[in-house]
Amino acid sequence: MSETVQTFLEHIGEVFGTNKKVLESSVDDDTWVAYITVTYSVKEKETASELDIAGVCGDHASVKLTQDNLVPMGSSIQANLGERCGSHLSATPPAACGELHPAKLRQAAHQQQQKRSRKMLGVWVLSLFLLGTVKAKEICYDRLGCFSDDIPWSGTVERPISKLPWSPEKINTRFLLYTRENPNNFQEITAINRPTISYSNFNASRKTIFITHGFIDQGEENWLSDMCRRMFEVEDVNCICVDWSSGSRTLFTQAANNIRVLGAEIAYFIETLMKNYGYSPSLVHIIGHSMGAHAAGETGKRIKRIARITALDPCEPYFQGTPTDVRLDTSDAVFVDVIHTDSGPLVPNLGLGMIQAIGHLDFYPNGGVQMPGCKKNIISQIVDIDGIWEGTRDFVACNHLRSYKYYSDGIVSKEGFVGFPSPTHDSFESGTGFPCPSIGCPQMGHYADTYSGITKVSQKFYLNTGDAKDFARYRYKVSVTLTGSSRVTGFFNVALYGSNGNTRQYEVFKGTMKTGTTYSAFIDVEIDVGTLYTVKFLWNNNILNPTFPKLGAQAAVIQNGRDGRMSTFCGSGTVREDVLQTLTGC
């Protein structure tokens, strides 16, 4: 007998006070059709008692035991539970006969234990005939097919707890359409009722982008519709926010399995477009955050040749290290790109995202673990520019949420978020991958698919971002040769001025500065300065120095990370601390 069935019998025994061995002999492990004999004691003269077996056969089914249907031991009564199991008690049919809800059974057991504490004078027997459409390790739904809880979906180190996904009706996946015609108010469309698509603003000649949220989130959160509106600024698309909040706001292990039905629902929607509108999967781009990224993978396993899947900090628990059947993989779309922002270990960092590279291009902004701006104190972070609700979300899961903020910013920042090829973040900070090779560098986010260096082998890229909007940064290498006093302790900064504006001051070196020495550093600045015109140099002694030393920048060489272009600037003389020196083209 399977472990699942044994657990089921234990819970039933707790609820009804029944000997487990009696139950075991009457269960058919293969089909879940069973006579389950249960005993129940009633107080003398008691006219009614209720045994709530919700969860044995759906969410709402229950049987009331009264003196009229209680019979002496040795007799039996058949009770059919819910519309899908028979004709009785069909007012609120369960989601699927046989679906287990151990937590509810334990709650019922506690209630029954309280009842059994009373004086027991009579023992009665009820036989429940449970007719199931669910096998011990599989559940099937007409539109979507069957789902198993066998390996690799459970029973592994990565997924120790066995859960079957909820029904499509319970998860209640919703498709919320935004277009340039209705950028602010969604139109709810569904593949089950095709006229909702026909009479909406959906246009079969456009690319369609599905945006899917993750655990505990919902499809009507502002970030999804804001991302749609950002896209309308650069292209004409059907933007569909997918809401599965009824399936995401539950226990983590259950939600991790519910995404299988979510992915199947998106696939069914795309199939409907293909069959009825001649739509091509080459026009489909799915963007999934957290668990939503792996739901996109499920869709890609069902619909071949989807153009693109973008994973925004794909969920790590229950997915990292699993076979590709369970998680997103490069085989799920023609192009898969991934942004990792919360890939620290779950313990002790509470990292929710994967560090494992699972796409064609995997981007690790700021190293992929700790995002700048996510270590603010609780007050400054909750009372944020985006409001109290968004600030609270940021405080709880700031690193995890940064991924979709970077992507949204990148839609309108066509030159920012350049990723540099490097095996690790440390090597990136040391200069590996800088400047971009002759083939160029990919841009993290919306324009990653324009990169010409995509291969079948996963590639890693690193970059740095800002700590707040706008997050895009532009990487330069600065090399400055000093002149003046022979030795000064302190630091010096530079600012870049160009055709697109100027940057703030960035520190190049701190320590003992020596004349005639060249100091180099990589700086990630807030704007693409365009064509460089001048460089401004500023230094500080850090302490009061009665000798009033002077220092100057004899020369500065600036190299652009994107194209490798180098610009040389020359300075004249020296300046005292905190006095700007301007360097011009040599």
Strand-helix topology:
Blueprint: H1 3-16, H2 20-24, E1 34-42, E2 48-51, E3 63-66, E4 71-72, H3 102-116, E5 122-130, E6 138-141, E7 145-148, H4 168-171, E8 174-178, E9 187-189, H5 195-198, E10 207-212, H6 222-232, E11 237-243, H7 245-248, H8 252-277, E12 284-289, H9 291-302, E13 308-312, E14 335-339, H10 346-349, E15 361-365, H11 378-382, H12 388-412, E16 420-421, H13 425-429, E17 459-463, E18 474-484, E19 487-498, E20 501-502, E21 506-514, E22 518-525, E23 532-540, E24 551-560, E25 566-570, E26 581-585
Parallel strand pairs: 10-11, 10-12, 12-13, 13-14, 14-15, 15-17
Antiparallel strand pairs: 1-5, 2-3, 4-5, 6-7, 8-9, 8-11, 16-17, 18-22, 18-24, 19-20, 19-21, 19-23, 23-26, 24-25, 25-26
Helix pairs in contact: 1-3, 6-12, 8-9
Provide structural commentary.
This protein is of the alpha+beta class and 586 residues long. The chain folds into three domains: 3-136, no CATH class; 152-370 and 399-463, 3-Layer(aba) Sandwich (Rossmann fold), CATH 3.40.50; 474-585, Sandwich (Lipoxygenase-1), CATH 2.60.60. Helices cover 23% and strands 27% of the residues. The protein is built from 13 helices and 26 strands. The chain has helices at 3-16, 20-24, 102-116, 168-171, 195-198, 222-232, 245-248, 252-277, 291-302, 346-349, 378-382, 388-412, 425-429, and strands at 34-42, 48-51, 63-66, 71-72, 122-130, 138-141, 145-148, 174-178, 187-189, 207-212, 237-243, 284-289, 308-312, 335-339, 361-365, 420-421, 459-463, 474-484, 487-498, 501-502, 506-514, 518-525, 532-540, 551-560, 566-570, 581-585. The strands form five sheets. The chain has a ten-stranded mixed sheet with strand order 9-8-11-10-12-13-14-15-17-16, sandwiched between helices. Strands 18, 19, 20, 21, 22, 23, 24, 25 and 26 form a nine-stranded antiparallel sheet that branches. A three-stranded antiparallel sheet has the order 1-5-4. Helix 6 links the parallel strand 10 (207-212) and strand 11 (237-243). Helix 1 packs parallel to helix 3 (102-116) and helix 8 (252-277) crosses helix 9 (291-302). The longest helix is centred in the middle third of the chain and has 26 residues, at 252-277. The radius of gyration is 31 Å and the shape is elongated. 41% of the residues are buried. The model is unreliable at 11-136 and 377-389 (pLDDT under 50). GO terms for molecular function: galactolipase activity; lipoprotein lipase activity; metal ion binding. Residues 474-586 form the PLAT domain. InterPro entries: AB_hydrolase_fold, Lipase, Lipase_N, Lipase_panc, PLAT/LH2_dom, PLAT/LH2_dom_sf, TAG_lipase. Disulfide bonds join 570-586.
